[in-house]
Design a protein that fits this description.
By secondary structure, the chain is an all-alpha fold. The chain has 14 helices and no strands. The longest helix has 39 residues.
Length: 339
């Protein structure tokens, strides 16, 4: 009995060591593994379409089409981010008088507490606005620079995608060489299922963006924001850039609401809509929409998102969901992993 307990303890200790080392390697190797994972994700998503193009025009042309799609998509997304920053900056600068007036009203309200003479109100309000402008714009520029740095790292993704698509038979052959001989046939079916999993993940993500954009637009329309569909879709699409995107898209909508109406309830309503939709997206929409496509439940999806966020940040919150689906597929094929 003691021998069996000792064996079980050693077994679970080995599992714990394996999980710990895997997390450490994933974290330390994130600069290479993140773009490589995105490359595999894109390659698997494109493969069903690329295979048909390849049959008619050859592999080189099929890879060229894939890279052209990536280039256009990336250009439009970055252009959308830059245009949003310019819109935000223009609205902020154009609201100078309103900002100064709001600051003066606030100081007048707090006059008894701050003990400030009326003559100093306008001067302090002007200084407050200039300080806010000086601090906010560099922060936005720095945020864009961080996104540009992320984009620069991801520039290697198209190279990985092209090489993966070109050498895919070699990669499959290598994978089958490290699989036990009696599991080769079943593993081929597993590879095809994994390819389908990535394609389903793309469908789930498209559904998430559609739902989030629709909810944002409806919420903005209810509070009377001008061009609610534009700002709703903008805030949804910019979530592609982790943290920075939703901040820029949200601030643009908030400042437009603030400059359009005299009441502060409208900007507050924008913040409330964005906060509620983001909460639903993170805890309900994404786990359910993507989890159903990948056939993993919402709890497992949410855990994968949290673990991915801890190890790889925003990229991990996206990539670890299909990783969890692939792990489930492998566990279904290997009896030792089924628990």
């Amino acid at each position: 009995m003691q021998t069996g307990a000792k064996r079980d303890l050693q077994h679970y200790t080995n599992i714990l060591i394996f999980i710990t080392l895997s997390c450490v390697l994933l974290y330390l190797g994130r600069l290479v593994l993140i773009p490589l994972s995105f490359a595999f994700l894109i390659s698997f998503m494109y493969y069903p379409v690329g295979k048909r193009i390849e049959k008619r025009f050859g592999r080189g042309f099929s890879i060229f089409v894939c890279l052209a799609i990536l280039l256009v998509f990336g250009f439009l997304l970055v252009q959308l981010l830059l245009n949003s920053v310019q819109l935000l900056k223009g609205k902020f600068i154009g609201s100078r008088e309103k900002a100064v007036g709001l600051a003066e009203a606030l100081m007048a309200y707090l006059d008894d507490v701050l003990v400030i003479s009326p003559e100093q109100h306008e001067q302090l309000a002007q200084q407050l606005y200039e300080k806010l402008l000086m601090d906010t714009m560099p922060f936005l520029s720095q945020a864009v620079s961080i996104s540009a740095g992320m984009a620069a790292v991801l520039l290697i993704v198209p190279i990985f995608v092209a090489l993966i698509l070109y050498y895919r038979e070699l990669l499959v052959k290598f994978t089958l060489m490290i699989v036990p001989q009696h599991q080769v046939e079943g593993f081929m079916a597993t590879i095809r299922e994994i390819a389908g999993t990535y394609f389903k993940f793309a469908k789930g993500m498209a559904l998430v963006y559609l739902i989030v954009g629709t909810l944002n637009s409806l919420g903005f329309a209810l509070i009377g924001l001008p061009n609610p569909v534009y700002f709703g879709v903008l805030a949804a699409l910019l979530t592609f850039f982790p943290y920075v995107g939703i901040m820029i898209g949200g601030m643009a909508a908030v400042i437009v609401a603030w400059t359009t109406y005299d009441s502060l309830w409208h900007p507050f309503g924008v913040v409330l809509v964005l906060g509620l939709v983001q909460y639903l997206e993170a805890n309900v929409i994404f786990p359910v929409a993507v989890g159903q496509q990948l056939r993993i439940n919402a709890l497992a999806t949410l855990i994968a998102i949290l673990i991915g966020g801890v190890i790889w940040g925003g990229a991990g919150m996206v990539l670890f969901v299909p990783f969890a689906a692939i792990l489930k597929i492998l566990a279904d094929q290997i009896p030792e992993l089924r628990p």
